[in-house]
User: What shape does this take?
Amino acid sequence: MNPSGVTEHVTSVLAVDIGATKVDAAVVNPDGRFYRRSRLLLADQDELGSAMLEMLQRIAAGVDVVAVGVGCAGPMSNHGETVSPVNIAQWREFPLRETLHQGLGLEVYVEGDARSLALAEGAVGAATGDESYLSMVVSSGIGGGMVLNGRLLDGDSGNAGHVGHLTVVPGGRLCQCRSRGCLEAEASGIAIEATTGKPPREADRSTRQYVGALVGRAVGTLASVLDFTRCYVAGSVALGFGDDFFEAANRAAREISTMPYTSDLRIARSKLDADGPLLGAALVGWRGGDS
Assistant: This one.
């Protein structure tokens, strides 16, 4: 399955990836190559909106781009009219789409960052050829995007896919969303450091397996409800934990999801590299411009 193939387009877009710690941006050519790439570290910015806009204006100056595609941490209102990323405290109901539209004079299309990554996974990653799959990121936070029958699920407000806020430990740790026991509150990089006192890269085997099992529990639950058998996971925590994580995740998912139609359920590594989020943002721009 190819939700938005890179080589199907004849125009370049400005791609923007807004995460918990940085803003990456680049002009992305129709063949997927990056041009004028730049990065902004959030910790260095008091006025993030104006600093980001200045960087994007510099990148786009004199370049023929037809749209801006943005992958941004959520939650957000429909089409990114306002965004309130959990890990960006200075942005609450921030008018992201209109800010970029007014500042750049281009059409702007916004998706959740993990949702845009799902598009990239289907276009050039491990999900190529799959009609239905869950794409996940297990890093400092946890997010996801769900593709069913070749279409990225949107939901009423465009926030579908927030797998990090499935409850996996009833009554567990308080999440930044104010619920308890969310997958993100229990298995993200931030949660691991808070509970173990060590960064994820120093996690022992039991921690790696426990985190994998929690992710598998969430995936297994969704697989039974939504009828898919493939999940692809990116992110520094999952990929850094390696086989311990993926073996535990698959074992837990199969224990949870016992319906006949999920008997072939598998959780595998993403095949996207570090450029996946920016490519996903570019695909958001192309997808919006083609709709």
The chain has two domains: 6-115+275-290, 129-269.
